[in-house]
Design goal:
homodimer, eleven-stranded mixed β-sheet
Amino acid sequence: VLPLALDAMGGDNAPGDIVAGGVAASKELGVDVVLVGRPEVLAELDTGGLKVLAASEVIEMAEDAGKGVRTKKDSSLVRAAEAVRDGKASAMVSAGNTGATMASALLRMGRIKGVIRPAIATPIPLPGKRPTILLDAGANAECTAEMLVQFARMGSAFASARYGNERPRVGLLSIGEEPGKGDPLRKETFKLLAEDSTICFAGNVEGRDVLTDAVDVIVTDGFTGNVTLKTLEGALRTISAAVFEVMVGTEEAKAASAPLLPGLLAVAGELDPDTTGGAMLLGVEGVCIISHGSSSERAIVNACRQARDMVEHGLVDRLRMAISD
Amino acid sequence: VLPLALDAMGGDNAPGDIVAGGVAASKELGVDVVLVGRPEVLAELDTGGLKVLAASEVIEMAEDAGKGVRTKKDSSLVRAAEAVRDGKASAMVSAGNTGATMASALLRMGRIKGVIRPAIATPIPLPGKRPTILLDAGANAECTAEMLVQFARMGSAFASARYGNERPRVGLLSIGEEPGKGDPLRKETFKLLAEDSTICFAGNVEGRDVLTDAVDVIVTDGFTGNVTLKTLEGALRTISAAVFEVMVGTEEAKAASAPLLPGLLAVAGELDPDTTGGAMLLGVEGVCIISHGSSSERAIVNACRQARDMVEHGLVDRLRMAISD
């Protein structure tokens, strides 16, 4: 079995938490992980005996993605993608610069034949339920109806591979449930999706359906998808902070809150994106996990688990079939 | 002083809660309210001595807006808009069909000179802070950069009139903070906003800034704005439900929760859109409040208060100046 290529240098908490996550994943999941990054930096850390794939450069979080990938040929991201391309790793995992992760995967692994543009699929955690997969979460600010149809197919294949959901319901994110609602892109996409017999199209969904199990896959352009996900993130943060303030506002409140904390922390955990194992770049010739920039050690373990599962479940083959159908 | 024209027939809870809200507004705020609707229906309710403007038809919530306004010339919405146009009412308030409310206002009152398209401005309530105004919340699924610049100006004028905020900071909703981020519409709009000396442009904001006080006015197209607002709405609902479940899950939890409830209900109240007085249609020749379809009696009181305040603060004159500057 090939190892997972983990970009040890990418992420707000890199390299410490990333390496710790790789070590934990190797122990807990029994997966083989290769750390990609600067040997001299990694030598300072407890790498738990994991192999190191040397890469002398780092594409920084805020760096221009295209330029970074073009000029830093010996960066951890580019080397991780090459390892997958060259059959030396089964998948790549990075919490680094999202644009550069996409560009590395796309340029080094290449596109699945027929795919117009790869998309980022993000599982949105729901309390007590299977996550809803939203795509495109930001890879393509501009989309055509044909791209959205491919996203629907790829998202369905991902939902099948990830959650064993053999007939995932697909919703088109719009501003009204009726078929005629939305801008010209949604109207055209609606028609194409309704005619596509390879997917289970459930019609339009609205923003208020995103954090519910109304459908299993939500399709939208990368601009709207990115705004939607970040809106959810901000809402979760603001509401949690407000609830927390009530619970610790007075000594009486603190005392009263104590028995509720385990349950509330469990809810917060269920809604925490770190638990879902990160987003996936769908449409490239390999498994590529894009973990949140703020990934913790735990998030990296979950990302590695997802990478392993997607390799085992033959995600890339499923995507190929979904596109060629 | 002219009365407010309240569409008594529009909304999920019409006419009961709407009429009750009008009666309460008249008592609590001392505003004069005229109920617009079917006299025979209103005669069955306690209208607290409010005057009635007869309208024999009703545009239903799910009805096609354009067709409704064209064919139902004696509908409560059309009559309410005519009352403002004819100087018989100072403002209109409706919790009915949003599209039909917009169309009635636009067709009967007309557009402010120079306005390309009116927009819906929605105050997003924040815990403990002044709401952030988001526009366009759904009037225009497709927008040009010139329209977004007008929305920035109108939103600023509204923030000034509504919250006494004389130099509101305007953010452009995009998928990254840097000037170059986003689709071509955002890039073009960014340049125009940066050059517009009549507003205080703070640059791009992201979805995660929506439920914060990062800026005072957030400008976006009506498609993205509508998805964003409904995403917030759904998130609030799902998270509240999950927290509530923990708090009443066991007898022990129920007992522990009791002292926390007042504080948590206060937070829920602060985040409740009903408290902000509803959305406003900006760019028409009159004050038009679009209240949430699910408006309660309390929401209608708040909407009437906002209508009165916007008339008193000369909102329409301010919008005229903002556009002609």
